[in-house]
Design a protein that fits this description.
The chain is mainly β. It has one helix at residues 76-81, and strands spanning 8-11, 33-36, 41-43, 53-56, 59-62, 67-73, 83-85, 90-93, 107-112, 118-120, 125-133. The two termini are 28 Å apart. The model has no long low-confidence stretch (mean pLDDT 93).
């Protein structure tokens, strides 16, 4: 890795030739980078027992060791589309980048609480990503190294 890189976004493996656009902030003082859907998809209305629908972004993020990327919903999604993030907020750890399972490709997990299917178009903004610092406790002893991707830290 180039030691000059501090934090940013790249196209994840498998999405190289799919016209993926990297996230950008819409205004100078926006905290979040707008994240787009990597492909067209349909999110069916929620039914009991249903797993959330994972929307591919085709991107991965790199950052410093004491940072994480917070994935948040767009404020308009619940009101206009009935889309709620299944995990309320997504956390992308620094060591998720380029992991062996999925190269660190990020996804948004949505439930559709509306009464009609929601159609998401490729390049539609689906959420936002905010780089954040985190702290550890005085007695922190975490030394395990990540060995996989999505949901892998507790296998």
């Amino acid at each position: 890795e180039n030691s000059m890189k501090i934090r940013g976004f790249e196209i994840a493996k498998g999405f190289e030739n799919q016209d993926i656009r990297l996230p950008e902030r819409s205004t100078k003082h926006s905290a979040g980078y707008d994240v787009e859907a990597a492909q067209d998809c349909v999110i069916e209305p929620f039914q009991l027992g249903m797993k959330p629908f994972l929307v591919e972004t085709g991107i991965k993020a790199y950052m410093q060791e004491d940072e994480f990327l917070m994935l948040c919903n767009r404020s308009s999604n619940p009101f206009k589309k009935g889309l709620v993030m299944a995990n309320s907020v997504g956390i992308i750890d620094a060591d998720y980048y380029s992991n062996p399972d999925n190269d660190g490709a990020m996804k948004f997990a949505f439930y559709n609480f509306g009464d009609k299917p929601v159609f998401i178009k490729k390049h539609e903004r689906i959420g936002q990503a905010i780089f954040m610092k985190y702290s550890t406790s005085d007695d922190d002893k975490a030394e395990k190294i990540r060995d996989g991707g999505f949901g892998s830290t507790n296998r």
